[in-house]
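call fold target=FxsA family protein
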Amino acid sequence: MWLLAAIIAIPLIEIALFIMIGGWLSLWPTLALVVGTAVAGISVVRLQGRLALLDLRRAVDEMRDPAAPLAHGALLLMAGFLLLMPGFLTDAIGILLLIPAFRTFVMRQVATRVKVTRVETRGYARPARDQIIEGEYHDAADEPDRGEKRPTHRPSGWTRH
């Protein structure tokens, strides 16, 4: 029910804000403000998105839980979407989502409503970086030539050039 209310309320709020701000600034400055916030917001989202991706890679490399970098990245995607939508309310929410402290606050609020379960894998152990794994190998180039491999069936014709 709350989703239906949001779908109805957000466009109405945006229209009201356009009318109020357009009456105060006039048409062209209002449109320039909407387009300017979208362009500036998207450039900031691209920069912070790269930083979030680097943080995610670092978390995976260090074998840390990647949930926080993934959540930051998802909220940055939402910020970019909101900034692309024309309107002042969506721009304000998108700009708030660009602030790392606000994203952390949103993640904490969502975390209070989410139950996390973990799946334990048994029998699989990833070796430590300094652990030595012994084994044998042979170089295929040193083996004697056993002749050319020949097909055991007639070609179908699909690979003919």
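return ok
The chain is about 60% helix and 0% strand. Residues 11-114 form one domain.
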